[in-house]
Design a protein that fits this description.
By secondary structure, this protein is α/β, with parallel strands linked by helices. It contains six helices and eight strands, in the order αβββαββαβαααββ. Helices cover 28% and strands 37% of the residues.
Length: 188
């Protein structure tokens, strides 16, 4: 019996796990931008690409974007267009530019998985410039004292509460925290 156990263990150890993914086959997404205008949703992924240069790890970024008439379809098209496996475990922020609360309901339906530890940030400014603003993907988090996680938004949605979300602003080519706004009070 002991020999069978050791043999099985060695087979598993030698051949490894079937869920193994090579790093260069993963698109590690750090920020997502969502723009809603006139019934069209534009989704932008920011992929971080770590590269070793002069014994240092340098971070480079690649951007993917796609449009559709609903958020689910925009995400699906983007995932199909990307040749790599979309890896969202390192997702830091979703930056949203919209005046429609419907986008939050669609996000809750789309991200109704284990991945809900990222922050939600709003903006009224140019989404493409904001998502490409910094070479540090955690820069947006450093601007805000009290980040609001997607988990908190889901909980508030279940309890029919309105929650305040940070609004960031791009002015004079500087990105900064502007104020907190309640979901639903975008026009204030």
């Amino acid at each position: 019996m002991k020999k069978i156990f050791i043999t099985i263990f060695l087979i598993i150890f030698i051949f490894g796990s079937s869920s193994y993914q090579e790093l260069n086959k993963l698109a590690i997404i750090t920020n997502i931008g969502i723009l809603e205008e006139e019934g069209q949703y534009k989704v932008i992924y920011q992929e971080i690409i770590p590269e070793k240069e002069n014994n240092k790890i340098m971070k480079k970024y690649k951007y993917y974007e796609n449009k559709s008439n609903n958020l689910q379809s925009a995400f699906s098209k983007l995932n199909e267009d990307t040749t790599k496996y979309i890896y969202l475990d390192h997702l830091e922020n979703i930056i949203i530019k919209t005046n429609d609360n419907k986008v939050f309901d669609e996000l809750i339906n789309y991200f109704d998985k284990d991945i809900d530890n990222f922050n939600i940030v709003l903006t009224y400014d140019n989404l493409e410039k904001i998502i490409k603003y910094s070479n540090n993907y955690k820069y947006i988090n450093s601007l805000i004292d009290n980040n609001v996680s997607f988990r908190e938004i889901k909980k508030a949605n279940l309890e029919n509460k309105r929650i305040k979300v940070p609004l960031i602003k791009l002015s004079n080519n500087n990105l900064s925290f502007y104020k907190y706004v309640r979901l639903g009070d975008f026009n204030d």
